[in-house]
Amino acid sequence: MRVVLQRVSRAQVRVDGRVVGSAGKGFLILVGFTEGDDRPGLEWMADKIVGLRVFPDDEGRMNRDLEEVGGDLLVVSQFTLYGDTRKGRRPSFVHAAGPETAVPLYESFVALLRERAPGRVETGEFGAMMDVELVNDGPVTLVLER
């Protein structure tokens, strides 16, 4: 499981011109799955995301977590996070989980985040061509892997 997490002041995802998910202050989470990902990994990642202290305190230091700022989450599936570009000019996606594996993992991951996160948890549309718009706050971008 691989996550690109961006601290945002706002974000939204559109499919065919219509907004399907949005977030205010919080995180945009791009998530990809690979074979072997499991429930304990999903739980670990959900806990890690909700507990990350990357929001500024009164002194401007990254010291507050999602709950302390009442942050939202926008979760977008992205199999291209497992694109391998070491050979050739076209990425290989052989390590990305196929939809039969990735869809249940994605749905479980979103459900875990909804249980744990203090604010809204919205999503993109799995497998759709999406336009993602965000204002990266900081900028703060982290890559998390399990």
State the main characteristics.
alpha/beta, 146 residues, six-stranded mixed β-sheet, two-stranded antiparallel ribbon
Determine the number of helices (DSSP H or I, runs of at least 4 residues): 3
**Beta-strand content:** 35-45%
Class by SSE composition: alpha/beta
CATH class: Alpha Beta
Order of helices and strands: EEEHEEHEHEE
Model regions low in confidence, pLDDT < 50 over at least 5 residues:
none
Task: Estimate percent helicity.
Answer: 10-25%
Distance between the termini: 5 Å
Mean pLDDT: 97
Overall structural domain count: 1
CATH topology: D-tyrosyl-trna(Tyr) Deacylase, Chain: A
CATH superfamily: D-tyrosyl-tRNA(Tyr) deacylase
Number of strands: 8
Characterization of the model:
With 146 residues, the protein is an alpha/beta fold. It has one domain: D-tyrosyl-trna(Tyr) Deacylase, Chain: A (3-Layer(bba) Sandwich). Helix content is 24%, strand content 38%. It has helices at 39-51, 66-69, 99-116; strands at 2-15, 18-23, 26-32, 55-56, 62-64, 72-77, 121-123, 131-145. Strands 1, 2, 3, 6, 7 and 8 form a six-stranded mixed β-sheet that branches. It has a two-stranded antiparallel sheet with strand order 4-5. Helix 1 packs across helix 3. The mean pLDDT is 97.
